[in-house]
Amino acid sequence: MNNASVPALELRALVKEFRSPGTVVRAVDGLDLTIEPGEVVAFLGPNGAGKTTTIDMVLGLAEPTSGSVHVLGGTPADAVAAGRVAAVMQTGGLLRDLSVAETVALTGALYGSDVDPLPYLRRAGIADIADRPVGKCSGGQQQRLRFAMALVPDPDLLLLDEPTTGMDVEGRREFWAAIRADAARGRTVVFATHYLEEADAYADRIVMVSHGRVVADGTSAEVKALSSGRMVSAEIDDDDARATAVDVVAALAGVDSVEERGTRLLVRASDSDAVLRVLLNRTSAHDVEVTAHNLEDAFLALTTEGNAR
To answer: How many CB atoms lie within 10 A of CB 286?
Structure first.
């Protein structure tokens, strides 16, 4: 693996603009990010946040408008050419008429190596379909094949863009077990995903982006803490009583939102104690629950329009 004194990935004031007559779209807007060797980092953001554009620049598939990208101390092109960075993308990169094993062998040939596909297929959990044509593989199996292909050059940095799309629950669990095993050996992993529970469970660090900028960076617990407050929920059976409770609770300081779901009232608030006092003393609420914000709450609070900092 690479020299631990050199960051695996270093982005400085990174900007990427797309221009058309009369229009300039800034997909990445002054993004700063440093990722150290051996980290497993979830790169999260809503559609259009700049995640894929950033990954494209790290892979040398797009040139920055301004700013810099250093991959393992050098340029993206040098890292890719040396096999030090590899990627598992959502789509593409597969020839349907080749077998699974032939696809991995071809990947080795592209790097000038005569490789035995089976060790890579075993690590990806698809050795049992080595002879199956790629076109006959499910979407999840094709994603695992892309993972096997990415392992062939033994990269120091592995980029994953929605890597478990199409996988069932067991397949996702096995995939992440393999990723964590690789990280334990020093490989750096950066992944973009819409499965927030995967980020919560498997990432050492979470980086959230919105409008091309980093809006949160830390452990899962640290990012959750940025979305202050709690969720208070309660049953109020009577429609009129529930409508009155909505008005009373919504007027409290520190209440972010009040939502009705059937007979249940959901209140997001920075002062859950005040909400509890009102519900228990001034309404007919019962079955009251208080929960801390989860990663999805933090994601919505930090990345939705008007909330991104």
So the answer is: 11
